[in-house]
Design a protein that fits this description.
Keywords: Membrane, Transmembrane, Transmembrane helix
InterPro entries: DUF2919
Number of strands: 0
Distance between the termini: 18 Å
Order of helices and strands: HHHHHHHH
Protein name: DUF2919 domain-containing protein
Pfam family, one: DUF2919
Organism: Vibrio ouci
């Protein structure tokens, strides 16, 4: 046994690592900004205009956050009886890598739009996305958490 017994859920599936959960939250950052802006009624549109001056990028960020939110939801629904959920979650690593790569491309497009002008925000986001891609691609615990154990 490679992992401690506490790292498995009641159905025998390896739980997703905490760093992967934080990664999914980071990939769904547009949804977090959207919910925070909606919760603050008076200054909601001001928050959205500061973080996402172009509404098209907000909508694109919301669309790219859907796979992460879906994976966060489906990873907790896994059970031996739900074969369709298990098949979708088995693709979770690839889905996460594609989503992170798309968001990295979007951030690089932002840099292109400002003609390469340095921005701490864009630099930090690109660095975090690169680390996330490397982590998801290389981590054995991430790979094993998406693996479906054989069911009898």
């Amino acid at each position: 046994m490679r992992y401690a017994i506490e790292q498995y859920d009641k159905h025998g599936f390896l739980k997703a690592p905490k760093l992967l959960w934080f990664s999914w939250l980071f990939l769904a950052k547009a949804w977090i900004v959207f919910v925070v802006a909606g919760a603050s009624r008076e200054s909601g549109s001001k928050i959205l205009s500061i973080v996402y001056p172009d509404h098209t990028m907000l909508y694109l960020g919301l669309a790219m956050g859907v796979p992460s939110i879906a994976l966060m939801w489906l990873v907790n629904l896994r059970s031996p009886e739900r074969h369709w959920v298990n098949r979708i979650v088995a693709w979770g690593r690839s889905i996460t890598l594609v989503t992170a790569t798309l968001q990295l491309s979007q951030t690089m497009y932002h840099v292109y739009l400002v003609h390469g002008a340095f921005s701490w925000t864009n630099g930090a986001v690109m660095l975090l996305l690169l680390w996330l891609i490397i982590y998801v691609a290389r981590s054995r615990s991430v790979r094993d958490s998406f693996h479906n154990p054989p069911m009898h």
